[in-house]
């Protein structure tokens, strides 16, 4: 059961665009609803994929990509179904914020959600219970958002549990062809874990970020997504590129050693660049304390070795803020 009513009938063929109507009674609108844009492009039986963006509202690349696909793709070029949510957490995306200004909800920490909960929880519940069971794959287009910048295009996929899953992960990530694919373990309140609970494969991108849009990354992500949809037989025709945008490097971020955090409040000066390979103990960042100007800056070192795949953007930091994410090469 859900209080959300979809204007789009997902069982019908053709191209349909409308809203998920999420009832929301507030002072200025007693009987109102929150409009979460949704689209379906369906043509008979075949593979089905959910493409999401705006899970975090300050990640813009995916919102642009998904909206473009929704306009450009024709049911005649589809076998199966594409379901699209260009602004999944609409209140957050409408405000350009990671979390919803209505309930402070972080959609990607809300799964499996709650049909009778806050707006963010109700959206999570609808995605997990009503959309994910319909698809074999969910592509959730994230990027660094306001506080982080990823190095180029990255794909995140769950560590496969058996050889047949490993075959799918290898095929899907290779078809997407972003420069890096990072394998990770499921975190229960995220879309990746929700997908696994519902029997779908998750492909979560991290495309640039810093609250901006990078044309080369957009181009690679679009080509990769279209090529992937072609590779599984869902999409046909001129829009499907003949080949993947590139080959992918398999990597993993180790939970204990690949993350650097600010040790206290200060101004963050990075000492390495994105894409650089670093060693454990190598200087990562210098923290400055202009409020105590006679105090010497503090140097922070990397705890592990690897490639710098993500860095914090704003210089003002507090204790606990993530400054860098590293990743190391693996075999799959
Ligand atoms: Zn995100």
Describe the model.
The protein has 332 residues and is of the alpha+beta class. Helices cover 21% and strands 32% of the residues. The chain contains 6 helices and 18 strands. The chain has helices at residues 61-72, 90-95, 119-131, 163-176, 191-197, 215-231, and strands at residues 5-6, 14-23, 33-43, 48-53, 80-85, 137-142, 148-158, 180-184, 201-209, 249-252, 259-261, 266-270, 277-278, 283-288, 298-301, 306-312, 316-317, 322-329. The strands form 2 sheets. A 5-stranded mixed β-barrel has the order 7-8-10-18-16. Strand 7 (148-158), helix 4 and strand 8 form a beta-alpha-beta unit. Helix 4 packs across helix 6. The radius of gyration is 20 Å and the shape is globular. It starts with a strand and ends with a strand. Zinc ion binds next to loops.
SSE order and pairing:
Layout: E1 5-6, E2 14-23, E3 33-43, E4 48-53, H1 61-72, E5 80-85, H2 90-95, H3 119-131, E6 137-142, E7 148-158, H4 163-176, E8 180-184, H5 191-197, E9 201-209, H6 215-231, E10 249-252, E11 259-261, E12 266-270, E13 277-278, E14 283-288, E15 298-301, E16 306-312, E17 316-317, E18 322-329
Parallel strand pairs: 4-5, 4-6, 6-9, 7-8, 8-10
Antiparallel strand pairs: 1-2, 2-3, 3-5, 7-9, 7-16, 10-18, 11-18, 12-14, 12-17, 13-16, 14-15, 16-18
Helix pairs in contact: 4-6
Residues 55-56, 59, 142, 145 line the site of zinc ion.
In a nutshell, what does this entry contain?
With 332 residues, this protein is α+β, with helices and mostly antiparallel strands. It has helices spanning 61-72, 90-95, 119-131, 163-176, 191-197, 215-231, and strands spanning 5-6, 14-23, 33-43, 48-53, 80-85, 137-142, 148-158, 180-184, 201-209, 249-252, 259-261, 266-270, 277-278, 283-288, 298-301, 306-312, 316-317, 322-329. The chain binds zinc ion (ZN).
């Amino acid at each position: 059961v859900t209080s959300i009513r979809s204007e789009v009938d997902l069982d019908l063929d053709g191209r349909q665009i409308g809203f998920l109507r999420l009832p929301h009674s507030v002072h200025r609108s007693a009987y109102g609803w929150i409009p979460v844009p949704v689209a379906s492009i369906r043509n008979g039986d075949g593979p089905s994929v959910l493409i999401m963006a705006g899970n975090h509202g300050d990640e813009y690349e995916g919102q642009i990509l998904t909206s473009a696909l929704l306009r450009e793709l024709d049911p005649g070029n589809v076998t199966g179904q594409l379901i699209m949510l260009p602004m999944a957490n609409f209140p957050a995306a409408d405000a350009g914020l990671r979390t919803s200004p209505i309930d402070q909800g972080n959609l990607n920490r809300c799964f499996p959600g709650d049909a009778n909960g806050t707006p963010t929880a109700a959206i999570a519940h609808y995605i997990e219970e009503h959309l994910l069971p319909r698809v074999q794959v969910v592509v959730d287009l994230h990027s660094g958002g306001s506080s982080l910048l990823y190095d180029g295009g990255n794909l995140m996929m769950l560590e496969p549990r058996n050889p047949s899953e490993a075959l799918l992960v290898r095929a899907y990530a290779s078809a997407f062809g972003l420069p890096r694919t990072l394998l990770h373990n499921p975190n229960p309140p995220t879309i990746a874990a929700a997908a696994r609970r519902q029997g779908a494969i998750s492909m979560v991108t991290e495309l640039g970020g810093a609250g901006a849009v990078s044309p080369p990354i957009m181009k690679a992500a679009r080509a990769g997504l279209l090529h992937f949809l072609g590779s599984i037989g869902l999409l046909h025709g001129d829009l499907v590129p003949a080949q993947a945008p590139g080959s992918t490097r398999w990597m993993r971020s180790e939970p204990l050693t690949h993350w650097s955090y600010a040790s206290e409040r200060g101004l963050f000066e990075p000492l390495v660049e994105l894409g650089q390979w670093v060693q454990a103990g190598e200087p990562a960042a210098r923290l400055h304390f202009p409020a105590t100007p006679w105090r010497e800056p503090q140097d922070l070192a990397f705890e592990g070795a690897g490639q710098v795949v993500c860095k914090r953007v704003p210089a003002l930091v507090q204790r606990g803020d993530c400054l860098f994410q590293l990743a190391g090469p693996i075999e799959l």
